[in-house]
Please model this.
Amino acid sequence: MAIKIDNKIVGYDVDADETEAVQLAETAAQEQPAQSNKIAVEKHEAPESNVIQMHEKVERPDMLLGSTYKIKTPLSDHALYITINDIILNEGTEHELRRPFEVFIISKNMDHFQWIVALTRIISAVFRKGGDVTFLVDELRSVFDPSGGYYKKGGKYMPSLVAEMGDAIESHLRMIGLLKEPELDEHQKKLLAEKRTEFESRQQACDDDTDSSFPDGATLCKKCQTKAVIVMDGCMTCLNCGESKCG
Model:
């Protein structure tokens, strides 16, 4: 409804609610560019992460760092050489990683050439797939040769040639940090020290009880456990119990 004013206007007042609304609108208009600039700066300071993880689409560089491990078993006259090449991801940054990329196995012995080539290709494919590849160690070391295993240098039993390949891969994964060295707790360290002392005491007692009349070059007799075996008339003969390889 329109209101007609017949007299001259001599004064006026502005409604308080409308004044506050105008002031708020002006303040918001002034602050909006500053907030937009702040958001743009924050986006600039926090770029998206571009850390590269190992996956099958990572391209092979022209040069890879590698390590070669020698395997010499009593089952073959020729040694096997396992070479594991690693790729460096995010080189020069705080996210730098060294991961296995491929494996090669070579030998003069060609008896197992076919399955060795197949095994290396499968292992290399698992390496390039990424993720946790440490399970390969347990899988390879659980392979048993139906003809029987053997003892490698140092007295460690190997159930098969494949198991020793797994042992070499384990050594490499420990070297690059994918596997951690098992640590003994204080109780285990104390027990191990006690067993070592006990063994050394028994060994010393054995040496003290050995008859000094036997020659210095005598070896241990498996029958009487005495260092009294010498070569006599071309036969290994024990001077303590008379055990002889020649009967």
The beta strands are 65-71, 80-89, 97-107, 150-151, 157-158, 219-220, 227-232, 235-238. The two ends are 138 Å apart (CA to CA). Residues 124 and 246 are 53 Å apart (CA to CA). Confidence is low (pLDDT under 50) at residues 39-48.
